[in-house]
Design a protein that fits this description.
Elements (H helix, E strand, L loop, with lengths): L1 H15 L3 H56 L6
C-alpha cells in the first residue's frame, strides 16, 4: 500500500508542476532503449537456436567428409571395389 501511495504522490507532483511532456519524453527514450535491448536479445536467441539446430548436421557432414578424404588418401580411391 505504501508503494501505491508513493506512486500516486509522484503522479500528483508531475501533474501539479506540468511536467507531463518532459516525463513522457523521458519514458519514450527509456522505452526505445529497452526495445533496442529486447531486439538484440531476440536476435541473439534466434541465432543461437539456428546454430543449435544446425550443429549436428554440420558435425555429421564434416565427419563424413573427413573420413572420406582420409580413406581416399590412404587407400588411393574412395570408390574402390
Amino acid at each position: 500500500m505504501n508503494l501505491v501511495n508513493e506512486i500516486l504522490a509522484a503522479i500528483r507532483l508531475i501533474k501539479f508542476n506540468s511536467w507531463e511532456r518532459r516525463f513522457v519524453e523521458r519514458m519514450r527514450a527509456t522505452r526505445q532503449t529497452e526495445l533496442g535491448l529486447l531486439r538484440t536479445r531476440f536476435v541473439a536467441w534466434t541465432l543461437q537456436g539456428i546454430a543449435t539446430s544446425f550443429a549436428p548436421v554440420a558435425v555429421t557432414c564434416v565427419t563424413f567428409g573427413t573420413s572420406r578424404l582420409a580413406y581416399s588418401i590412404l587407400a588411393g580411391s574412395a570408390d574402390a571395389d
